[in-house]
């Protein structure tokens, strides 16, 4: 009798744990018909010509690897990403050298600001939109590219999280 009771208890625990796996949040994420994306070239209001291209490529890769969306030309994509790089600030001092006779910055910070929107091309609905997306990156002297890469990665993360959590 005791073995039968344990068997029923084990079955009940198994069923309870399996139904817990089915739990999820309704309303989050992209619509199910969004399977392809066109990440358009970013407009550029800065004096840094390579920044929009770097941002576009990083976002394209992030959309593919983290959201599972395939890249497509604009006329065949179910969603389109458009944006503008509005500001690129350089040489924000972070840390200074320990030498009191020289007040030189050992580390610097840069900041990138963009406006962005993701549009469902099938319904025409704006899926996610945000102005003033901002991210920073730190770099040592002559290491601006590394700081820019950090900032771009942070912006891509914010965009993808925003697209996934649209409520």
Number of spatially distinct domains: 1
| Overall geometry | globular
Q: How far from one another are the termini?
A: 51 Å
List segments where confidence is low: pLDDT < 50 over at least 5 consecutive residues: 19-27
Which range best describes the helical content: under 10%, 10-25%, 25-40%, 40-55%, 55-70% or over 70%? 25-40%
- The CATH class name reads Alpha Beta
Give the ordered list of helices and strands: HEEHEEEEH
CATH domain fold name: Double Stranded RNA Binding Domain
CATH architecture descriptor text: 2-Layer Sandwich
Largest sheet: 6 strands, mixed
Task: Give the DSSP E fraction (strand runs of 2 or more residues).
Answer: 25-35%
Gyration radius, rounded = 23 Å
Average pLDDT over all residues: 85
Q: Which structural category do the helix and sheet elements fall into?
A: alpha/beta
- The total of helices stands at 3
CATH superfamily: Lipoprotein like domain
Number of strands: 6
Which SSEs are present, and which pair or pack?
Elements: H1 2-20, E1 36-39, E2 43-44, H2 50-67, E3 70-71, E4 79-96, E5 105-120, E6 126-140, H3 144-164
Parallel strand pairs: 1-3, 1-4, 2-4
Antiparallel strand pairs: 4-5, 5-6
Helix pairs in contact: 2-3
